[in-house]
From TrEMBL:
5'->3' double-stranded DNA exonuclease which may also possess a cryptic 3'->5' double-stranded DNA exonuclease activity. Functions in DNA mismatch repair (MMR) to excise mismatch-containing DNA tracts directed by strand breaks located either 5' or 3' to the mismatch. Also exhibits endonuclease activity against 5'-overhanging flap structures similar to those generated by displacement synthesis when DNA polymerase encounters the 5'-end of a downstream Okazaki fragment. Required for somatic hypermutation (SHM) and class switch recombination (CSR) of immunoglobulin genes. Interacts with the MLH1-PMS2 heterodimer via MLH1. Interacts with MSH3. Interacts with the MSH2-MSH6 heterodimer via MSH2, and this interaction may increase the processivity of the 5'->3' exonuclease activity. Interacts with PCNA, and this interaction may both stimulate the cryptic 3'->5' exonuclease activity and suppress the 5'->3' exonuclease activity. Interacts with WRN, and this interaction stimulates both the 5'->3' exonuclease activity and cleavage of 5'-overhanging flap structures. Interacts with RECQL/RECQ1, and this interaction stimulates cleavage of 5'-overhanging flap structures. The lineage of its organism: Eukaryota, Viridiplantae, Streptophyta, Embryophyta, Tracheophyta. Residues 435-486 are annotated as: Disordered. This is XPG-I domain-containing protein. Belongs to the XPG/RAD2 endonuclease family. EXO1 subfamily. Residues 459-474 have a biased composition (Polar residues). PANTHER family: DNA DAMAGE-INDUCIBLE PROTEIN DIN7-RELATED, FLAP ENDONUCLEASE FAMILY MEMBER.
DNA sequence: CAACCGTAGAAAT
DNA sequence: TCTACGGTTG
């Protein structure tokens, strides 16, 4: 998983752990934006390809990586073709996995937009070249091993020498084009791009594994979404209600500075400075200037460069260059301040509109800014062959497809907790009126009580993926498409957004037998999740672009899910007879009391000093969302604030949180238990003999000393550059 | 000085 | 995720 490879990112998951109230387990699938990182397992390693030649030119790397496969267990299949196919299998797994997620979201009426990483930010080039160097070393080592006849060791090194993610992205984009799923390749970082889309309400939420989205200021993030569509939701608006760390009075700026202090991609943290200390310091001194001042005053020697680097890191979070799909040009995430200086290249060099557009569409290599060097036809061939091979294998033996499993234990923990909670979860008594009209999946199906059917979604997920595979494999022979409301809707939304691609649209083919089996599986799953579907539809009131779910299911008249989902769509239509984006699907009446919050949050509920309005929202409106009324714009703008639906998840959330908190209680922050709280005076004037953690942005901390420890001397990196 | 805490590196996956 | 370590608290 990505976070294991990049220590810098590791620094933020602790923050995630500390979020309880604002990070809630949600039990329905929603959210509109998927980062490729959400599909973990997708990236074994982030960064350039071997030989310092980064990015998408990974096809060459595939050859290298594939080569040792011949010597491995797959040798029996023989030949170079197999080598590539073997790699293709990996590609396929990832693509398959991604598409499963896409379909899952689409099934729940969510329109995903996949966001890919683009070029490197100058600030990160150091890291990337280091990674590239390591890969090169591994490649050389692999060749040595190979020459020595040690194929196992060689294979190991070959694996380390390869960056497969660009090739996955490249192939995935092809599939996305075929499937008419929206995507966008960021000019630089996907995180910034996703934040941009979220900020300007092109999407309602971001699904990702990367907690960098928090310092970026993304207001609604869904972490660790599993294959059931469950995950942990983060809302910046609920941050104040967090218990483990007290964020009351924190502005977005403070959160950002806290994160930078504790270490980020753009700036390594000071030794001994972790999230807790950063939090305590920011809490007390409010701004990074005052914090550094205080640290210096306390005798900590901080290099003069630090403040400048700190500012740059903050700016990189705030003003990074991203692609504006509306204007079809490169823009800053937010307007740059005056004092930022002349040279803005550290935010990502400016790019001409045609280039950045080409990159966004996946037509241009974000690194070379030119056409891809990859031999497309070949790779297609390889992948197609791999598809065929995979299919014959999986269908023939009905072998369980090896989807990348979420290995993160925290994730698993959450999912487990959610599943456990789900077993005991009963339909909320409160049901939206509109939904009552149709046959509810819960009421009509005796199995809707999900007890004991946990394996089901698993297998259905597998089926689904396989089915998808099959379809993709034959995706050239597309069946006639009938124009529909959804199509119009789709076109419209695309037009207005200017995304590279089309609208979503899954179910435009006649259901194949496999598809039908998938449908059945989905239906069964839907029954199981009946109540959650209702929640989903509740959620959807704030979802900006709901497309095609009903279409998908309308071809399967048996689907009760379809009824529900169609209801949503029909509600969307009812205002003026045409499909309206951003409309409320259901009328909820009075906002419900928030039981979850009431029970688990004792903190005061004051006006939010956490200043959401500091964000450069284009359509800012402070009117609180009132469920069931208001115009469409308001709905989408205020989605982050209407938490009435929380009611429905309370059981799940409490259950999960209870376990979560007990597991994570080592992180408990109690204001009364003074030990952890408050500021610890750092050790004074002790020379920091240790080296810095290595793979971070290059900042010279040779002068710096802060809470040094003996054991830090064990750090491997030889600080030659600090000499 | 025991108990506890946060950080950081190693190990496992 | 696990664990060792140095540091703080009372």
């Amino acid at each position: 998983m990505l976070t294991k490879r990049i220590p810098v990112i590791l620094l933020f998951p602790p923050l995630l752990r500390l979020l309880d109230d604002s990070a809630r387990v949600f039990a329905s699938s929603f959210g509109l934006l998927i980062s490729e990182k959400a599909f973990q397992g997708l990236e074994r390693r982030k960064g350039p390809g071997s030989d310092g030649d980064p990015g998408f030119a990974a096809a060459a790397a595939i050859n290298h990586a594939a080569y040792p496969c011949a010597g491995s267990s797959r040798a029996d299949r023989g030949g170079g073709y197999l080598l590539l196919a073997s790699q293709g299998r990996h590609l396929l797994q990832h693509i398959n996995y991604c598409m499963h997620r896409v379909k899952l979201l689409q099934h729940h009426g969510v329109k995903p937009i996949l966001v890919f990483d683009g070029g490197f930010l100058p600030m990160k080039v150091d890291q990337e070249t280091k990674r590239a160097r390591k890969r090169k070393e591994n490649l050389e080592r692999a060749m040595e091993h190979e020459a020595a006849g040690n194929s196992v060791a060689a294979f190991d090194c070959y694996q380390k020498a390869v960056d497969i993610s660009p090739s996955i992205a490249f192939e995935l984009i092809k599939v996305l084009k075929q499937e008419k799923v929206d995507y966008v390749v960021a000019p630089y970082e996907a995180d910034a791009q996703m934040t941009f889309l979220s900020m300007y309400k092109h999407v309602d939420a971001v699904i990702t594994e990367d907690s960098d989205l928090i310092p970026f200021g993304c207001s609604r993030i869904i972490f660790k979404m599993d294959k059931f569509g469950q995950g942990v939701e983060f809302r910046s608006s609920l941050l104040e209600q967090n218990k483990d760390l007290d964020f009351t009075g924190f502005t977005k700026q403070m959160i950002l500075e806290m994160c930078v202090f504790s270490g980020c991609d753009y700036l390594p943290s000071l030794p001994g400075m972790g999230l807790k200390r950063a939090h305590a310091l920011i809490r007390k001194y409010k701004s990074h200037e005052k914090v550094t001042k205080h640290l210096r005053y306390s005798g900590v020697s901080i290099p003069p460069v630090y403040e400048e680097s700190f500012k740059k890191a903050v700016w990189a979070f705030q003003h990074q260059r991203v692609y504006d799909p509306e204007k079809e040009c490169i823009v800053h995430l937010s307007d740059v301040p005056q004092d930022i200086g002349e040279d803005l290249d550290f935010l990502g060099p400016w790019l001409p509109p045609d280039v950045v557009k080409g990159i966004a569409k996946g037509d241009l290599d974000p690194l070379t800014k030119g056409p891809f060097q990859v031999e497309t036809s070949n790779s297609v061939l390889v992948v197609d062959k791999a598809f065929a091979m995979e299919n014959s294998e999986t269908i023939g033996r009905r072998k369980k497809l090896e989807l990348p499993v979420q290995k993160n234990v925290l994730t698993n923990y959450f999912c487990l907790a959610s599943i456990q909670a789900k077993r005991k979860f009963r339909a909320p008594k409160f049901t939206p009126k509109v939904l009552m009209k149709s046959s509810s999946p819960c009421s009509s199906n005796p199995d809707s009580d999900s007890t004991g059917s946990d394996e089901m979604p698993l297998s259905s997920a597998t089926d689904q993926s396989q089915d998808f595979l099959l379809n993709s494999g034959h995706s050239n022979d597309k069946l006639p498409v009938t124009p529909s409301m959804e199509d119009r809707l789709t076109n419209r939304s695309n037009k207005c957004l200017g995304f590279p691609l089309h609208g979503s649209s899954v179910g435009k083919r006649c259901p194949s037998p496999l598809q039908e089996s998938y449908q059945n599986a989905v239906n069964r799953k839907s029954h199981e999740h009946g109540t959650e579907l209702k929640c989903t539809s509740l959620e959807n009131k704030s979802v900006k672009r709901i497309v095609s779910t009903s279409h998908f299911f309308s071809e399967n008249s048996l689907s009760e899910v379809a009824n529900v989902d169609q209801n949503i769509v029909s509600c969307k239509n009812k205002e003026d007879g045409t499909v309206v984006l951003n409309d409320h699907p259901v009328s909820l009446g009075e906002p419900k009391p928030i039981s979850f919050l009431e029970t688990s949050i004792k903190k005061r509920k004051t006006a939010h000093p956490f200043d959401l309005e500091t964000l450069p929202l284009r359509n800012v409106k402070s009117t609180p969302a009132i469920a069931g009324q208001g115009n469409k714009d308001e709905n989408s703008k205020n989605f982050g604030r209407d938490i009435s639906h929380v009611n429905d998840y309370s059981g799940i959330a409490e259950k999960s949180m209870e376990k979560f908190v007990s597991l994570m209680n080592s992180f408990r922050y109690s204001s009364s238990g003074s030990r952890a709280s408050g500021l610890r005076a750092p050790l004074k004037d002790v020379r920091n003999t240790c080296s810095m953690r290595t793979n971070k942005a290059a900042v010279d901390f040779s002068e710096f000393s802060y809470k040094p420890r003996k054991n830090t001397a064990r750090v491997v990196s030889s600080p030659s550059k600090f000499d």
